[in-house]
């Protein structure tokens, strides 16, 4: 047809079915391409060879963005000097600290930490700790931890001492990528000299323990293409393991939700509602309870819409009396370079108020200023 005449001969033409139409948007958002025709049936796209390089499935599915990006013209020494001045003498210039840390990527902050030690023979973190306190201290320290270390540290603290913060275990282990999980497991061992699986076994039990151990393997299928036949079969199996029988076959839920890729799970969840006349989240609510219910639901929510999962967690960290500051800090920091832009969008859609508005009314002082600077308001 006529539009093809406009495309250079060395470009590649791709036709996308309606079932994959979401991919079209992601390609448009993520890489250079020219949309040629847009029929009622599907979309036709032409991509240059260079685009095809960046168009492998991982690139296509990662159409998310953080609120924090690496600062251009970055100078670690200059930043170290600013932080030193901010803490020298009587009182602390918190605003100067906020301006630096909220406008640098995690990698850049680690370089500032190294430069500080080289220039002044002092540990930046120790200096910051002596100047700050409370939530502001927790937030600043989180920003200076490498992301993998911060996840491992959060898991260790969730299982340390009396009681276990199961929601933290779920939030981290059920939402991270394979590579992130493997890095966390390794860091947990090297930094704390402990085996994460042993700690999980000591602190949890039953089906919840088994789900978390499955998550720790970091072996979820990462093939991004969807097998609709398999989605149909898995939906049927989940129905027969739960709603379709007396009692529940928990191992079937564990096996499918712990091993299938997130795009594959999304297709299964969508098929399930046709098979069961009920959505999978409500079936999980009827068949399970407590931590294992929360863990399975977290996996399903991540498959459907990861930013929405985190938006909901943020909302409940601030809703009602008091604030769960650890959760607020952890999610804002860990998602700040991944998908905080999308989390903010989902938050507004879901709760008819912005994330910044809720943070403003729930926090105060420099802690509030720094959170808002990271969120990008």
Quote the distance from N terminus to C terminus. 47 Å
Biggest sheet statistics: 3 strands, antiparallel
- Overall shape: elongated
The percent range for helix content is 55-70%
Count of extended strands? 3
Percent in strands: under 5%
Return residue spans where pLDDT drops below 50 for at least 5 consecutive residues.
1-61
Helix/strand-derived category reads mainly alpha
Going by CATH, the homologous superfamily of the domain at 220-288 would be: Annexin
Order of helices and strands: EHEEHHHHHHHHHHHHHHHHHHHHH
CATH class of the domain at 220-288 reads: Mainly Alpha
Number of helical segments with 4 or more residues = 22
In terms of quaternary structure, what is this?
single chain
Q: What is the CATH architecture descriptor of the domain at 220-288?
A: Orthogonal Bundle
Question: What fold name goes in the CATH topology slot of the domain at 220-288?
Answer: Annexin V, domain 1
- The radius of gyration computed from the alpha-carbon positions, rounded to a whole number of angstroms, is 23 Å
Q: Provide mean pLDDT, rounded.
A: 87
Strand adjacency order, main sheet: 1-3-2
């Amino acid at each position: 047809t006529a539009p093809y005449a406009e495309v250079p001969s060395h470009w590649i033409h791709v036709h996308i079915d309606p079932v994959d139409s979401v991919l079209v948007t992601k390609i448009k958002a993520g890489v250079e391409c020219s949309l040629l025709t847009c029929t009622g049936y599907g979309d036709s796209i032409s991509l240059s060879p260079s685009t095809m390089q960046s168009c492998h499935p991982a690139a296509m599915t990662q159409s998310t963005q953080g609120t924090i990006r690496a600062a251009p013209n970055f100078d670690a020494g200059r930043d170290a000097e600013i932080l030193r001045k901010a803490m020298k003498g009587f009182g602390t210039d918190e605003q100067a600290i906020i301006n630096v840390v909220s406008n640098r990527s995690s990698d850049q902050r680690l370089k500032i930490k190294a430069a500080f030690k080289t220039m002044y023979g002092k540990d930046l973190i120790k200096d910051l700790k002596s100047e700050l306190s409370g939530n502001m201290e927790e937030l600043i320290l989180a920003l200076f931890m490498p992301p993998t270390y911060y996840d491992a540290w959060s898991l260790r603290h969730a299982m340390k001492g009396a009681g276990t913060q199961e929601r933290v275990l779920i939030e981290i282990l059920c939402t991270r990528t394979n590579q992130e999980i493997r890095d966390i497991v390794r860091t947990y061992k090297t930094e704390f000299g402990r085996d994460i699986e042993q700690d999980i076994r000591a602190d949890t039990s039953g089906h919840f323990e088994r789900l978390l151990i499955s998550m720790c393997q970091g072996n979820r299928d990462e093939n991004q293409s969807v097998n609709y036949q398999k989605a149909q079969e898995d939906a049927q199996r989940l129905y027969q393991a739960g709603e379709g029988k007396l009692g529940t076959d928990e191992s079937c839920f564990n096996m499918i939700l712990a091993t299938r890729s997130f795009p594959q799970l999304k297709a299964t969840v969508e098929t399930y509602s046709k098979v069961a006349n009920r959505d999978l989240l409500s079936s999980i609510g009827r068949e399970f309870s407590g931590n294992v219910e929360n863990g399975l639901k977290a996996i399903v929510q991540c498959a459907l819409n990861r930013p929405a999962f985190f938006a909901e967690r943020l909302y409940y960290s601030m809703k009602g009396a008091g604030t769960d500051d650890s959760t607020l800090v952890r999610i804002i920091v860990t998602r700040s370079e991944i998908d905080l832009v999308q989390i903010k969008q989902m938050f507004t859609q879901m709760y008819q108020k912005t994330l910044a508005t809720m943070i403003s009314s729930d926090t105060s002082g420099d802690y509030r200023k720094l959170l808002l600077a990271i969120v990008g308001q």
